[in-house]
Structures are given as C-alpha cells and as structure tokens.
C-alpha cells in the first residue's frame, strides 16, 4: 500500500442561503465495493479538464478523489480525454484506466453521470443525446441546486475567441502549454533535489503575464453575460484551468479548475452549498503550495 497520504483542502466556498429544507432527491442503493477510507458523500460533483491521455494528467490523485467521494450526480465538464494529444502520441498508463473504472463504478452504483464534452474531446459531441456505458452525453446541461438555483453547465470553449476564429492557433497554444507543464515538472524535480519549496512555473505564467490575466477576465465576463441573457442564476464551466467562485454582475460564475495543475473539483452538499476542493498528496514529497489552510480559514466567495 502506498505511503502517500492524501488531504482534502477547501479553497473556496459559496453558500447563498442558510441550510434549510431537506431536498427531495432520489436515493439509489450502491453496489458493494472494497472499503475506501475517508469516504464522503456529496449531492453533486463537477470535474473537468482532466486531460486523460497526457503525461500532465494527475490520474492517481483523480482516481483517489473519485474513490473517496460519492455523489448523486457527477458532471464531467469537458476535456476529460485529450483527443488532441492522443492523435499524435498514444499515452495511456494504468492510472488512467483506473479513472475510467472509478467513473463506471459510479454509474454501476446508481450515480447519474453527465458528460459535457469540451474542445479536446470534441469527438464525443457527435453522440450528444445518447448514452455510452450508462453515461449521458450532452452539449450543455442545466443543474438545479438543492436551494433552487439554476446553473448552466458548459465546458466554455465556445467563448474562447482563439478556438472560434483560429483553431490552428489553439493547437499551437496547447503545445506551448504542454511544454510549460513539462518544464514545470523538471523545475519541480530540481527544486526538490535542492531542498527548495515547490514553485509552479505554469501557474506563475498565468498569474503574472498580463495577456493571460486579461484573457481570463474576458472569458469570465463573456460566460457570465451569456448566462445572464439566458436567465440562469449561475454557470459552471472549465476550459481555462482557473478554479474560482465569483459573483459577476449578479451571476455566480464557477470554474471547477483542472487535474493537470490544481487538482480541483466543485462539490455541492445537501443544502446547496458550493465548494471547490483541492485534492493533493503530501508527506515526503509534500508540495508547500498545496499545504492545507489553517482550520477555520477558507476563501469565501461573495455572498
């Protein structure tokens, strides 16, 4: 058994209303499975941008997260399998198989699994409206929280002007991002060997480069504007690998992050409380950037 310990860290929360009525929801009897410690149940889980089929995917952590967290509904919000990368080079280790097995186990246990394909797994968009292995494929979805809020669930690539207008440039950007992730791994290995704390090159580039920051802001504004025009209370999306819960002009914008850098997922509890969780490994190879926050300190989204 691996000596690696795992930690669930709360990094953002939003609770628009106090816990109130017990929601009426369908209960399913799960299929027996081996004991999994630290198991927690949620009403809904959202994950996106796992990029299975790439070396950057943190498949071991993702599989562990899925094994230790159950739900009534699981949303796969795009870029689950990286078809772009697999077309050029096949990469599919056992850990990636385990992620698929955990998802299928949830289907077998009665969890409703909804797959909203993104741009990297756009091949699945041809099957929208169908079921594959018990998984519902949808171009977009609507989710109603336990307290009655209506959320649009989309991947979000349709709001990316680069993808819409110049797909070749999007592929070039994907290549550059992959190179940054590989450099990040090398940098991390060197810093660990020197006894230095973890430092993310790719995260620094996104936070410090002005164009990247402007892109994120423009993307969020465009998604929130479309959500407002369509009469929803909020939106859950992925695509830009930037986990956050923000209120933008009366719309709750939620991005569930990714499983390449941040290893984050969005969860909803029985009262409709939304929270972004970061799932990280620590111990001998602990990354200080992923250290748990002190008890009682969580980043709260605007009420």
Describe it:
This protein is α/β, with parallel strands linked by helices. It has one domain (5-16, 38-290): 4-Layer Sandwich (Purple Acid Phosphatase, chain A, domain 2). The protein is built from 7 helices and 13 strands. The strands form 2 sheets. The chain has an 8-stranded mixed beta sheet with strand order 1-13-12-2-3-4-6-5, with helices on one face. A 5-stranded mixed beta sheet has the order 7-8-9-11-10, with helices on one face. Helix 1 runs parallel beside helix 3 (94-108). The longest helix is centred in the middle third of the chain and has 27 residues, at 167-193. The chain is globular and about 50 Å long. Mean pLDDT is 77; it is low at 1-9, 14-36, 162-172 and 282-303.
Short description:
The protein has 303 residues and is an alpha/beta fold.
Task: Give me some keywords for this one.
alpha/beta, disordered N terminus, eight-stranded mixed β-sheet, 303 residues, 7 helices
List the helices and strands and how they pair.
Elements: E1 5-14, E2 40-47, H1 59-68, E3 69-76, H2 83-88, H3 94-108, E4 112-115, E5 131-132, E6 135-137, E7 141-144, E8 150-153, H4 161-165, H5 167-193, H6 201-208, H7 210-229, E9 234-237, E10 244-248, E11 251-255, E12 264-268, E13 274-282
Parallel strand pairs: 2-3, 3-4, 4-6, 8-9, 9-11
Antiparallel strand pairs: 1-13, 2-12, 5-6, 7-8, 10-11, 12-13
Helix pairs in contact: 1-3
């Amino acid at each position: 058994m691996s000596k690696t310990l795992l930690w669930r860290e709360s990094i953002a929360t939003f609770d628009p209303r106090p816990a109130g009525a017990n929601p009426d929801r369908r209960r399913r009897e799960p299929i027996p499975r081996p004991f999994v410690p630290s198991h927690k149940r949620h009403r809904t889980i959202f994950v996106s941008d796992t990029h299975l089929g790439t070396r950057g995917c943190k498949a071991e952590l993702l599989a562990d997260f899925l094994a230790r967290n159950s739900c009534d509904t699981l949303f796969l919000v795009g870029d689950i399998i990286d078809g772009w990368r697999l077309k050029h080079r096949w990469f599919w280790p056992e850990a990636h198989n385990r992620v698929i097995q955990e998802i299928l186990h949830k289907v077998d246990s009665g969890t409703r699994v909804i797959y909203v394909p993104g741009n990297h797994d756009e091949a699945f968009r041809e099957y929208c409206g169908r079921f594959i292995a018990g998984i519902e494929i949808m171009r977009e979805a609507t989710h109603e929280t336990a307290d009655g809020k209506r959320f649009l669930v989309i991947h979000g690539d349709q709001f990316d002007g680069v993808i819409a207008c110049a797909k070749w440039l999007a592929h070039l950007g994907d290549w550059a991002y992959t190179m940054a992730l590989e450099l990040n791994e090398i940098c991390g290995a060197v810093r660990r060997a020197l006894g230095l704390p973890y430092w993310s090159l790719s995260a620094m580039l996104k936070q410090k480069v002005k164009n990247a920051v402007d892109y994120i802001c423009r993307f969020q504004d465009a998604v929130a504007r479309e959500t407002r025009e369509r009469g929803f209370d909020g939106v859950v999306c992925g695509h830009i690998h930037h986990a956050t819960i923000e209120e933008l002009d009366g719309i709750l914008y939620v991005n569930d992050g990714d499983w390449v850098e941040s290893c984050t997922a969005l969860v909803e509890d029985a009262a409709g409380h939304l929270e972004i969780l970061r799932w990280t490994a620590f111990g001998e190879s602990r990354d200080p950037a992923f250290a748990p926050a002190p008890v009682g300190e969580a980043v709260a989204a605007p009420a």
